[in-house]
Amino acid sequence: MNTDWNKRYSVEEYIYGKQPNHFFRTVMDTLSPGKILLPAEGEGRNGVYAACRKWDVTAFDSSSVARQKALELAGENGIGINYHVCDYPDFNCHESVFDVIAFIYAHLPEEQKHACYKHLSPCLKIGGKVIFEAFSKNQQKYQLNNPQAGGPRDPGMLFSIEEVEEIFTGFHILKLEEKDICLSEGYGHIGTSSVIQCIAEKI
Length: 203
Ligand SMILES: C[S@@+](CC[C@H](N)C(=O)[O-])C[C@H]1O[C@@H](n2cnc3c(N)ncnc32)[C@H](O)[C@@H]1O
What we know:
203 residues, Rossmann fold, seven-stranded mixed sheet, globular, binds S-adenosylmethionine
């Protein structure tokens, strides 16, 4: 159980809101429904969006409070999602069953973050897509001036373009871009932010 995240999520509000991440939604709207995996899914905003569009959703997160809120959000929308409480190494994924894996702000400690992506990539089908958005190393400059700018304060948990390239070595990179965007996601991600967006296809 992830006690830090459980404490953060133990508020009535959805800290990143109930609406899906904009990049996630934009990419998903171009794809036909299939099976999607959402690691580190938090309070369910992205999984619920996908399920409402007929995707078969599997999600996991180490926070049990996040799961509870995600299932409530699913109930409000009249849909169901499969949501496991586990740390990423305990997610069993030996079969290539998913059409999409979406890593949306799935930030982990530096020593774990590469391992997480390598651990999960076998469960993506050949031809399946990764959708990735996370804060870049340049987010630190926005965090200095804006307490509501999102992202871990530990720079090792932020990403560089080179790291993302390294993580998805062997994939066909369809998009890889670092950019400044204006986030308005609940109260956890607010203001100008530096993010990396990637779409990669398993070959
Ligand atoms: C910034 S939040 C993002 C939540 C969600 N993806 C979103 O965009 O709304 C990061 C999430 O990673 C989860 N997390 C952190 N370490 C994890 C681990 N080792 N295994 C699984 N989930 C983890 C946290 O519980 C938290 O929900």
